[in-house]
Amino acid sequence: MELGREIREQPPSLGENPRVLDIMWWSLRIRWWAGDVAGPQDSFDPDVRIFVRYHTPSENFVLENSVGLQKGMVGVVNAHAGRRNAGLNNVVIAYEFLHTLGATDKYEPGTGQPEYPLGYAEPDLKPLHPQRKAEVMGGRIAMASDNAVTPRSLQSVVIGATTAAEIGLAEG
């Protein structure tokens, strides 16, 4: 992994309540933007581009959703600035990076709960709860069937078998 130069130009915004055509158009714009704004990054041509937008933490400020696109191999992560947020930011960066490689979400869209068994780090654990870690694409550590907590660092996440197969790390 290599870091590129700092970029101050902001990526295109998806907007609120986008329709399917809005999302398709935005997807094209973000890929074009990524190639254009990044330009030549020293002497390397990256396979994946992840842009991290750091925001000052505030109780009244809600971060926009982060995104990782397999087509175009580009991601935009919205993160809280500051050392105390580095661990969680790294989890989000890893999550969006894995999306660019083809990993799929493994949580319930309505609740955010990890999907059993694919979204669990240890789906065979007895008793099943509390889980000790999160499956990275499950997003959270399942403490009970209806309660999960956000992992605070990469030390609290694993890549499960299905995710590993999706990104080509293991046979599916």
Short description:
This protein is of the alpha/beta class and 172 residues long.
Overall description:
By secondary structure, the protein is of the alpha/beta class. It has two domains: 102 residues, no CATH class; 68 residues, no CATH class. The chain is 23% helix and 16% strand. The protein has three helices and seven strands. The strands form three sheets. Strands 1-3-2 form a three-stranded mixed sheet, with helices on both faces. Strands 4-7 form a two-stranded parallel ribbon. Strands 5-6 form a two-stranded antiparallel sheet. β2 and β3 form a beta hairpin. The radius of gyration is 17 Å and the shape is globular. The relative contact order is 0.12. The model has no long low-confidence stretch (mean pLDDT 92).
List keywords for this structure.
7 strands, globular, alpha/beta, three-stranded mixed beta sheet, 2 domains, two-stranded parallel ribbon, single chain, 172 residues
Give the total of domains.
2
Number of helices: 3
Query: What low-confidence regions span 5 or more consecutive residues with pLDDT below 50?
Result: none
Helix and strand string, N-terminal first? Answer: HEEEHEEEEH
Nearest-integer average pLDDT: 92
The main pleated sheet reads as: 3 strands, mixed
Provide the gyration radius in Å.
Answer: 17 Å
- Counting helices, strands and paired strands, the structural category is alpha/beta
Give the spatial strand order of the biggest sheet.
Answer: 1-3-2
Choose one word for the global shape: globular
Number of strands: 7
- The separation of the N and C termini measures 26 Å
Helical residue percent band: 10-25%
Beta-strand proportion: 15-25%
